[in-house]
Give the backbone structure.
Amino acid sequence: MVTKLNSRGLAAASLFFLTAGCSSAKPAQTAAADSAALHQMAGMSMPVTIPKGALYTEADVHFMQGMIAHHAQAIYMARMAAAHGANPRLLKFAGKINQSQQAEIRLMQDWLVANKQAAPDTSSWRHMTMPGMLSPEQLATLDASHGPEFDKQFLNLMIQHHEGALKMVTDLLATPQAAQDVDVSVFANDVTTVQTAEIGTMQQMLSNL
Amino acid sequence: MGNARTICRLAVAVALSTTTVLHAQTYPTGNDPRNGLKPGMLDAGTAEKGMRLVSFTPKPAEFDSVRGLTFINSDLAFRGKYVYQGNFSGFSIWDISNPKKPAKVAVVPCVTSQGDPSIYGNLLFISAEGNGNRNDCAKGGVQNPADHMAGVRIYDVSNPKAPKLVKNVQTCKGSHTHTVIPSPTDKGVIYLYVSGSQGARPETELAGCNNGTDPADENNSLYRLDVIKVPLAHPEQAAVVTGARIFTGLGAAPTSAARREQQANRGARGGRRGGAPAQAGDPVPTGPRNCHDVTSYPEMHLLAGACASYGLLVDISNPEKPVRLDAVSDTNFSLWHTAVFSNDASKVVFTDEWGGGTSPNCQATSMMEMGGNTTLTISADKKFKEHAYFKIPSAQSPQENCVSHNGGLVPVPGRDIMVQGWYQGGIDVIDFTDADHPYEIAYFDRGPIDQPPAPGDTAAAAASRQRGTIGGSWGAYYWNGMVYSSELARGFDVLELLPTDKLSANELAAAKLVRFEQYNPQSQPKIVWPAAFPVVRSYLDQLVRDKGLAAARTTAIASALNAAEKQSGAARGKSLSTLATQVEADANGAKDAAKVRAMAGAIKALAAASK
């Protein structure tokens, strides 16, 4: 997988990307590669062992692993904004998503590593499907748009994306014994608070287009 | 209950801010003493200006750091000679009679995330949120829902060496933080406003709990702050009595063709070719449904709520029937977090906890307009106006979780000054007297807990290297002459402010005259300065510093004060009365007439006290 760090127009905050995972390859190319290699997994199929006495469950591990992939795709989308002529407010918003979600990926990776679980890297979004994530077709549509059309596509698709994250949290909290590990529960609640607020922001931006 | 909603609908004013107006700062390039400090848990390098560390006491062994949040310290509450320090796994009580050597009075292990504390008389309240807290305080998590505790714990601390758990008040959503509001009509009653973003627990766990989507539905556990009523003489009877529905009418974005199309698109998602993503779920109402934290100012009957991407102003004259007065939405902030009122309640500083406290968001590349403070003024008719942002002017490293967090006022007369914790960004003292130009007065900072990644680390080495340890100041507060800070990972800091060109010895002496027997920072007390020379001299120092009065006059007033101080009784009173009259006249044509008049008032009060 070609990996290039894309710092066009957005903060070069990839210092703490611990793994190579930022690709600037065009979605059109990737879409072709992906549909050949795509593993459609609604959940995780990596085997998970929970040590005796651990306060976390398989659901917590899958949540963290899946959210890494989920975040990674959001970052990929956010990094398209500059080259696709996003309006200044959207550009700033995309920059925020880029910075915020990179830091959160690192947090999730840290948690998984500290608990000796597999930690996906940021290319994981290309082969993991979580609620709300964009299909190759949606990505292609996004990539083909520019200016105000990009703004509209981006906002609609990122709202969908965020709603998917909220569903992941809801599903986690509905799982028996899950989210008792305080790192997971604090993180999950923050995702809900922040992404709900960001959905509101995006809806405002949509109405102002 | 219906009344509150009707009034709210009429009073809604939502201001959308744009970023260009409020961008106030850029980071200086390097050369700040806080850059490049030596990393370490207990031996990190430090940098300080305008304050000094009086003592550092490491965490009790019971809360010795394991990685992650499990044993981190949280907030502080103050009473008598004790400081109550919350922790995600219990709490500590410190005797600070000797600030150089805080003495451990009690350490109570009791798994309670986040452990936000308040003290009222002999009752200590501790917030519990999340799925892993138990009624019996034990570790090991919750297997049987009947053991699950979420809400506010009440301890009797009449004997601080042996706190006694009196009651676990269960709430539907648990409690991230809680805020004390004494009853304005009954001295035997206090209310706790419960904040927190979690959804409601299942009805099988607690009857009546339900996660609705309609903000106006009275049965909906969401879209309200739970209000607990505590009969102080019978804390075991404490219970949720009502919900503060202060969010009604917020968050509805204007309708437009774009939104209608978006709604239509959402329905079509499921049918795409090539394997559609799993259904993303119902569209969510986007107004706030809860607050992260609220600050009450009981003597002003006001409350400032930090609620998702809104700051709210609420009338709490009747704590059981609060009325929202105004709301401001700043979409740069998605985690409005805490609030500090100025003493005259003409201003509020709100904070944005971008990243939730666990991300390094004070780096040179981090956005300046997020993760810091915003300064709002409150008009006479109780409406907000947003002014300037503030973020600490020193870039922090990628190893340091950093964002603005909890703080409180430093009681200097004539100025609005707060001290605040910024996690591993350290402690900052900020003047926000001019809402358009807040600035830093003093700071204390440590190096990061973790070593930076070494260049050329192998993957295995990188994986084993300690990184991402969450630490720093959860909250820094001024109380009775000292600054106390709760360090998440390391322990308990006591600091002292020092005079500088931005804060004089007189101003610090005046602050020291303000003493509170009890202090819960998010339940702000009204500061009243006694009649005293340092108070007068504070105003004078400010007039000199800001050239608010001609130098000839400030010099003369200083001499007159010195002379009067050497006198006593009626003679002193007479001298001061005469001086007060002169200073009143000085106000005419003075650059800062208001401050000159304030000084005259302080001299008059001192004259009266001298008779």
Notes: Chain A has one domain: 57-207. Chain A touches chain B through 73 residues (CB under 8 Å). The radius of gyration of chain A is 17 Å.
